[in-house]
Structures are given as C-alpha cells and as structure tokens.
C-alpha cells in the first residue's frame, strides 16, 4: 500500500488524469565519484510532459537521452534538481517508497527482451506481475481477466499459457507493452522499444503505444535513435551534450 488506494482500485479504476504527468526542473546528473569532478551526463535539464501525450526523446549516442529517461523514471537519482511524476517529488521519497512508485505508477518497456519479461513465468503471469508484486492474488479471476484483456488488446489472444521463449521478439515487446499498462500508470517509459525489431513489428509496437495515449489518455515518454519511430510522437525533444536543444 502506498496511500493511493488498494490493489483492487489499481485493477478496477483509472488514475485521475493530471495536467502534468512528468516534470524535470534543472536536473543535473554526474556519473562517477568526486562531486563536481564526475562526468556530466545531464546539464540543468528542465521540461514538462502533459498528461495524455506521447513524447519522444532523440539525440546521438552519448547525448544524455538514456540518462534523462533513467532520472525521469526514478531508476537513477539526479545529482541536483527535481523530478516529479504525477505531482510527486521523487527526491523526497525513500528507496522503498520510490520502488513502490515505480511498481504502481510507472510502466516500462525496455529494448532488451531479457529485461522485459521473466523467462520462468508464463506470458499471462508476466503481464500481471506488477499487480501480484503489489499484493494481488495471482489466481484472482479479476486479475487474470485483466491480463487476458490486455493480451487481447495487443493482438496476442490465446498465448497466455506459453512462456516468453515461444514468442518472437516483436511479440515479446507487445507483451511488454501489455505489462506496462496493467497498473494504469501515470507514465509509460519506453527505452528504444523498436531497436531490435523488424519494420513490421516496430510499427505494431509503436501503434500500441500511440493507442494507449489516444484511447486511454496514458502518457508515454520514449527514447529512440530512430526518426521514423519519433514521428509517432506528439512532441520530440532533442538532446545534445546533456542538454535539451
């Protein structure tokens, strides 16, 4: 429990839409030790991402876009500055509270299939895993029905009992999208979600992310090096040298 309601409310209701889903204020991140002597990855980055929007973050390798995503999603703490998700200041949270926020209010789609899905779990179990980690009964029919409904939505009806290894890379990414949406998150962060996919599979995954924004009012922030993928977004932020241009 994190003060936002019971597990049942996360399954049955939609989170209140906020005007701003994500904000960064003068966020700086230095890698390595030594205070100001570390490598500067983000340099006083500020931006606001409206709720119900699709934002792409682009830039060359080493520009800081992956560090931007990790700080915005609470995976890394910035050296200075403020990150807010749905109005919550991540810097004021303990590690345990930050873990709960990532579990309950943030969805992730990673580039690597190995990071997205747990190979020892079935596809359906992978989809509902965030709910189970939050305390839901894994055999509760409401929980299972939500998992099946999301698999139907991403075009994978009837595969829930299989393991991830039985699916193609594109299909695994579609399962990852379903899992990212299962908690009705404030923000879905996608890190190069189409980098290892063929063009047809990439279109399917991007279409699912786009539809989550259009049909459900979810907020998506995607890091990508692919201009074709970035064209699916409402807004494109360009990073270079750790700054937004």
Please describe what this structure looks like:
- Helix 6 crosses helix 7 (169-181) and helix 7 (169-181) packs parallel to helix 8 (199-216).
- A hairpin with a 2-residue loop joins strand 9 (235-240) and strand 10 (243-244).
- The chain has 245 residues and is α/β, with parallel strands linked by helices.
- It has helices at residues 7-12, 65-72, 95-105, 113-116, 123-133, 141-153, 169-181, 199-216, 227-230; strands at residues 20-31, 39-50, 54-58, 80-85, 88-89, 106-109, 187-191, 220-223, 235-240, 243-244.
- It has a single domain, classed as 3-Layer(aba) Sandwich (Rossmann fold), CATH 3.40.50.
- It is globular, with a radius of gyration of 18 Å.
- Strands 6-7-8-3-9-10 form a 6-stranded mixed beta sheet, sandwiched between helices. The chain has a 4-stranded antiparallel beta sheet with strand order 2-1-4-5, covered by helices on one side.
Strand order of the largest sheet: 6-7-8-3-9-10
Overall 3D form: globular
Q: How much helix, percentage-wise, in residues?
A: 25-40%
Low-confidence stretches: 1-18
Q: Given the structure, what is the number of helices? A: 9
Q: In the CATH scheme, what's the topology name?
A: Rossmann fold
Strand content: 15-25%
**N/C terminus separation:** 40 Å
Largest sheet: 6 strands, mixed
Q: Which structural class best describes the helix and strand composition?
A: alpha/beta
């Amino acid at each position: 429990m994190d003060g936002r309601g019971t597990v049942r409310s996360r399954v049955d209701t939609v989170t209140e839409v906020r005007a701003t889903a994500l904000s960064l204020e003068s966020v700086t991140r230095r890698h390595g030790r030594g205070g100001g002597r570390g490598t500067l990855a983000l340099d006083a980055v500020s931006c606001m991402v409206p709720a119900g929007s699709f934002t792409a973050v682009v830039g060359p390798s080493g520009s800081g876009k992956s560090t931007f995503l990790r700080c915005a999603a609470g995976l890394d703490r910035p050296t200075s500055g403020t990150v807010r998700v749905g109005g919550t200041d991540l810097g004021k949270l303990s590690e345990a509270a930050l873990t709960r926020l990532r579990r309950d209010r943030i969805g992730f789609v990673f580039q690597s299939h190995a990071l997205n899905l747990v190979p020892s779990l079935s596809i359906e179990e992978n989809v509902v895993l965030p709910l189970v980690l939050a305390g839901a009964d894994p055999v509760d029919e409401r929980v299972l029905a939500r998992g099946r409904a999301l698999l139907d939505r991403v075009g994978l009806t009837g595969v829930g009992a299989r393991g991830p290894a039985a699916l193609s890379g594109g299909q695994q990414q579609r399962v990852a999208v379903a899992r990212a949406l299962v908690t009705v998150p404030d923000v879905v962060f996608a890190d190069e979600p189409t980098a290892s996919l063929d063009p047809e599979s990439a279109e399917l995954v991007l279409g699912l992310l786009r539809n989550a924004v259009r049909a459900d009012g979810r907020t998506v922030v995607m890091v990508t090096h692919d201009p074709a993928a970035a064209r699916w977004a409402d807004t494109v932020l360009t990073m270079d040298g750790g700054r937004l241009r």
